[in-house]
UniProtKB/TrEMBL annotation:
The chain crosses the membrane at residues 34-53, 60-80, 86-103, 115-136, 148-170, 182-203, 209-232, 239-259, 265-285. Residues 324-512 form the Histidine kinase domain. The keyword Transmembrane helix applies. CDD domains: HATPase_UhpB-NarQ-NarX-like (cd16917). This is Sensor histidine kinase.
Amino acid sequence: MELRRLLLRTLPLLAGCLLGQCLPYLIPQPGVSLHLFWLPGPLLLGWLLSLPLHQWREALVAATAGSLLALLLVPAAAYAQVLTSLGEFSMVAMFAWALVRWQQQRPLLEGYRDLTLFLLMGCVLLPLCCAWWYALANGARISSVQDLRGLALGHAVSYLLVVPAVYNLGRCFRSPQRRQGWHLNAAALASVLLALLVLLWTVDWRDGVVTPLLSLAPVPILVWALIVFGVAGASVGMLLVAALGSVLGQYGLGPFGFWSPERNLLTAQTWTIGTGLALLFLGALSDQKMSSRIKLHRAYQRLGEVTGRMLVVQEEERTRIARDLHDDINQSLAAISIRMSALRHQLPDRERPIVTELQDQLLAVSNDIRSISHELHPSILRFTGLASALDAFCNKRNARGSLRLCCSIDCAPRLGEDSELSVFRIVQEALNNVDRHARASVADVRINVQGNDVVLRVDDDGVGMSSSGSTRAPGLGLISMEERARLLGGSLQVSQSPLGGTRIEVRFPVPGTRPQAAAAQ
């Protein structure tokens, strides 16, 4: 298992560096002596920034192995080229370490200050150092300042495009919340849009006014990718669009194909830098919102876990109190009643009614304690099931109060002791809310099975929920019902009832039919 994880972490980087070393020799580039994009260094930087420090050695070994394999697979890849890459990897590791030290557990491309630092270090200083090192190792190919400037600009564009794409893809694979927009329909639509862009850019537009406007065509696609796929999708889209524009420009096609190949490449790189910077800062704003939503979701999950544990502790405490009331206090009252019966037979006849009256009061107190004990922990659930327990509860409420309850229970499967207790508590809390707030005369409790779901509805004919009430924070009773519904694997909804008051509806899957994804959550 550990070897499998190691291969998953290193093989993509090894293959990427190998491909990056071979591409300049496998793809013809008419009129340009330097590569359009440089993949190994930016790929390694993005990979290092997305990994913890203790896994950096594995990434560096994989990148080095990929570069060395290029000597065997592509003989044209000169020794100096590989030596240049190894030196660049050393500089990449140093710059990555400096960025991580500055980052201090914060997302790298999320804050504007951190993003500015990355642009200065990763897209200005590092490309300049790489161009200088490349000039030293390949002096024969770098014959002028113009070549050195073009090399530095090519490295800057490569780092600007590849590093955010690799880094954000790594964050997406580690966080399922960042992949919410990733589905088959969106991917198919993205492919169609990219194909339309390729078709639009490969047409030979003779009109000199229309062709420059084609450079604006990818902007809506990139914004759409940012909205649907997040920063990772926008970064990958920007990388694909920039590569497409640069390659087509070398063949005189697209919005960057008007002049010589060198000037076309310079135009494409300038457009890429401007659009890439704008997209990065726009993505930082989107990433901040996404991080806030993820933090809120995690806080809600922790709150739900704490509330769930609190409900469990509450039930345990209720059970203990109910047992103490029933077994200890009621037994003590029964013993007192027996002693009073013995005392009554020893008293004169004229004093016996007083003792009898005290015994009747003692019996009423004992019945009240028994009723409280059963409400604290309905033991009838364990022996007869939810339907009988709710029916007995409704009958008892009808006998002692003015609220008339109608119970209709159609729940064929046994839900399990914990689930039935949660449903019972939801009904109990909902009816308590009706008693306290609704000023209702009739309440209707219905439980039935609809497909694979159990549906509980509690309706009343009370005053309902006022329009201003929806803006107030929910009470503890409603929070408790929502949490119990969540523990059941379902949800709770509050709406207007057909009776004129409020409807509490809880819908949850029948045990045994719950999807695996929902159960895992």
